[in-house]
């Protein structure tokens, strides 16, 4: 069940739809929004056997995609539905091998400026206390303009 608190500029259900339709590759991962607040978000990516690489670990590209949309969601939780906000840089540090479980992403915005937002994401194997990866990233926020609607 997804949850939005009153301080978020975008509802969890709207954000989940935006991820699924606006970022279709990651949307196909089955990512769900567990909670969203002002500048924070918690996402869940289910365990899938097609995400497991040799050695029995979740593949890095799946983790990176989850982290990217988590940071995107955290940005939108502050500025509302601005679909043209885009990643300008992102760094991932893998800390330990993820288990064969779903992956939780907890993102927060550390600095929001007029044109850039900077934040970080911690990724956890579901049910574990220690993160499997730490991600930092910057998003570019377009100049004031009406939101773009997705084409059907």
From TrEMBL:
The keyword Hydrolase applies. The keyword Iron does not apply. NCBIfam families: unchar_dom_1. This is Phenylacetic acid degradation protein. Residues 55-130 form the Thioesterase domain. GO terms for molecular function: acyl-CoA hydrolase activity. Keywords: Hydrolase. It holds the Pfam family 4HBT. InterPro entries: HotDog_dom_sf, PAAI_dom, Thioestr_dom. CDD domains: PaaI_thioesterase (cd03443). It comes from Skermanella aerolata. SUPFAM superfamilies: Thioesterase/thiol ester dehydrase-isomerase.
